[in-house]
Amino acid sequence: MTQRLRGVLMPLYAVVTGLILGAVIMAVARYNPWSAYVALFSGAFGNLSAIGTTITYAVPLVLTGLGIALAFRAGLFNIGAEGQYWMGAIVAVWIGYHFAAWPWYIHIPVAALAAMLAGALWGGVIPGLTKAFVGAHEVITTMMLSYIAIFFGHYLLEQGPMMAPGFIPQSPAVTASATIPYAPWLPTLTGGFWITLVVIALTHILLFHTTLGYKLRAVGANAAAARYGGMNVAWFTVLSLGLSGALAGLAGALQMLGVEGQLSDTFSSGYGYTAIVVALLARNNPIGILFSGIFFAALSAGSQSMQIDSGVSPYMTDVITGIIVFFVAADRLYTYVRVRRARPTGAVGEVRA
Amino acid sequence: MSTLEIRHLRKAFPGVIANDDVNLLVQSGETHAILGENGAGKSTLIKMISGLYQPDQGEILIDGEARRFDTPRDAIHVGIGVVHQHFMLIPALTVAENVVLGSELSKGRFQRSKTEAAVAEISRSFGLPLDPSARVRDLSVGMQQRIEIVKALYRKVRILILDEPTAVLTPQETRELFVVMRQLKAEGIPIVFISHKLEEVREIADTVTVMRLGKTVQTHPVAGTTSAQLANWMVGRDVVFSDHPPASTGIGDTLLEVDRLTVLDERKVQAVRALTFAVRAGEIYGVAGIDGNGQTELVEAIAGLRPVQSGVIRFQGRSLAKVGVRGRLRAGISYVPQDRQRDGLVLTFTLTENLMLRDLSRPFSRGGFLTRKAARQRAQELLTEFDVRPDNPSALAGSLSGGNQQKVILAREVASRPKLLIAVQPTRGLDVGAIEGIHRQLLRLRDEGNAVLLVSLELEEILALADRIAVMHAGQIITELPRDQADIETIGLAMTGERRAAVTSEEGST
């Protein structure tokens, strides 16, 4: 079996297994899994408007997932994308309501780029430098910085400098000049989706068609060999975590400017965590991330109609997600089973044990 | 008294038949060598005998009884002990802990003193001196190998398999290993000795089975064979033994100057101590020495991978103090590192990607973008030129045999047209054919007026190639001789740190 085919089949196995086990659980709880899945599917893809909503849900997941994948490719685990997303959202919203006089073609790019810079700083420069020069592990630093960012957001909104007049802890709305419009022919599809498609393409090109991406992957695959190849491993640590944070920051910006319109205290995105799963399921492949992002978005978009139509709790989709994560993480299990089965004919997939 | 018999064993991987109709009979109490080139299928055979792979066809019989090993555990249970080329030891644990790992004296509490006594008893009775309480990470390669053997003995081994055991040893350590092997043989333990070194096979084995292209082609008592005959079977053609290739024809200017260089190792101990030497264009400068005497640190400092504590490295008269790895490469310094899997290659990358690891310029990329087609083409040329098998640019480096991995590294380093090639153990673990090819490359570089700094633990290799020979001991060059004044005894003695008064060549030491 070719490497490429395996890369597609493994995630599919995980998804199918997750859905089957989810059905078993529903059946045990005396629900009809078939009608639940039909409701889930039609809720997510049943009509054009639903498809638009699902894709809009997917945008922050895909962008953040791309960032996490980029770090993974360089051998780094950015677990704090949630905080980088928040930093991006905060900065984008602040610029979004502050400079009402700017034309849109300046306002939106500046807000988005500033958000990326903030995410890069939070996700890359600080954890990257501390890892490269002090040896602090990025899992710890990105996670801890993530909390700081989230609570910094709460501070800004709860009687803080970004709170809008009134009693609700939320920021002022971004001005029209900073708003990314929905698609005119499909009012549920955010304009951020087009930007996301471009970013996917750019990430793919960066990783697989540039010398920079080549070096980044070399550092991730074998740091000793990369050093011998003349690559500055510390620099690539900072760079890849920085890019990773920038993408999470961009996700926050597009969500604020294109969907939410303002930062609010009640909302906790969770995108930064789900995006880890998105990247894992796609095996850190930028194009695969588009599909896995849409898949997880569909699970949450369809969960409402699943509850309405068949009475299954929307949390059921979280159970399915959990099962899928388990099987993605355990994909060695499939390899093991396959190798065992294949033994009599000797068609072992991997030559190296 | 046990025997091992293999009948018509076959193992195929997608696109490769690694073993085909392999037959072997190891009698009780004999040392049986399996001789073959890299990629001849020796490792696959061992992996089947040890339960890591399962054969597609054929039988493995222990004492005449057919056995099937689904896991290595099954094989160990039957009494098959394998000492792999890459040791399976945990550096942070002690010798005794490593020996009993997985078959501790009792479940639950670890009985340290009892375990250590048991291990000491085995090492004493088989004549393998070891300190059971020493940490593995502090021990030399030879000692670690000894632990592996003790590990097998502790598990009541009935058949001991040594996979290329001498590849990592110094001549002295090899001699010690042979003493141990004779001792084990006297105890009646049959030994399967995997090797591609003809002299060693002739010295230690009773019977030899030659493998070529996945098949066993000959089984013969060692007495009554000649090296030429063995090589012939192994390679399938006549091999010319030229022990002394022509000496350098023209020595040129000094290329590399190392002046009172001091380098620290990981533990911040001086591994290279105020060392001075120079390498000139048109010569192969050989550095001999027992592993761990500062060779690695010296070479890494020259390649730019390790900071210099004091002293100067000059290349073509220019100090390299402010030049990085890439800069040195561009200046014409190539480097074949000792550990090809750790440093030399990215195993999960394709051969094309590995061939551009150190130099992304020209055919591999343009303006920051990879040029896939041109890169592939260039890779194909290099793989063909350096006889890498398979010569498929899209194959993963990790799927190649050790010898072919080394050829990929050499192809990359020689292709950049270096003025100085640093090669550390370039033929470690390789077969006659591959060694011949790599030696030819080194000589060609020299004859084209370049310099080669050859660091090797194999004295024969240094003596065969080097125009000048330096012996390193404890971070210093203890003696330096032109080849015509060097002999194995003098150098061997210097390797142990003894600067014999008789070494009074006019140059003397540095």
Keywords summarizing the entry:
heterodimer, A: ABC transporter involved in vitamin B12 uptake, BtuC, two-stranded antiparallel ribbon, 14 helices, 2 strands, disordered C terminus, B: 510 residues, alpha/beta, 6-stranded mixed beta sheet
Description:
The complex is a heterodimer of chains A (353) and B (510). Chain A is 74% helix and 2% strand. Chain A has 353 residues and is an all-alpha fold. Chain A has one domain: ABC transporter involved in vitamin B12 uptake, BtuC (Orthogonal Bundle). In chain A, α4 packs across α10. Chain B is α/β, with parallel strands linked by helices. Chain B contains 17 helices and 22 strands. A 6-stranded mixed sheet of chain B has the order 6-7-8-3-9-10, sandwiched between helices. In chain B, strands 16-19-20-13-21-22 form a 6-stranded mixed sheet, sandwiched between helices. Chain B has a 4-stranded antiparallel sheet with strand order 2-1-4-5, covered by helices on one side. The radius of gyration of chain B is 24 Å and the shape is globular. The C terminus of chain B is likely disordered.
Topology of this structure?
The complex is a heterodimer of chains A (353) and B (510).
Chain A: H1 3-28, H2 33-45, H3 48-73, H4 81-98, H5 104-134, H6 138-157, E1 182-183, E2 186-190, H7 192-209, H8 211-221, H9 223-228, H10 233-260, H11 271-281, H12 286-310, H13 315-329, H14 331-342
Antiparallel strand pairs in A: 1-2
Chain B: E1 4-13, E2 16-26, E3 31-36, H1 42-49, E4 57-62, E5 65-67, H2 72-78, E6 80-83, H3 95-100, H4 112-125, H5 141-154, E7 159-163, H6 171-186, E8 191-195, H7 198-204, E9 207-212, E10 215-221, H8 227-235, E11 254-264, E12 270-280, E13 284-288, H9 295-303, E14 310-315, E15 318-319, H10 325-331, E16 333-336, H11 340-344, H12 351-355, E17 365-366, E18 369-370, H13 372-385, H14 402-415, E19 420-424, H15 432-447, E20 451-455, H16 459-465, E21 468-473, E22 476-482, H17 488-495
Parallel strand pairs in B: 3-8, 3-9, 6-7, 7-8, 13-20, 13-21, 16-19, 19-20
Antiparallel strand pairs in B: 1-2, 1-4, 4-5, 9-10, 11-12, 11-14, 14-15, 17-18, 21-22
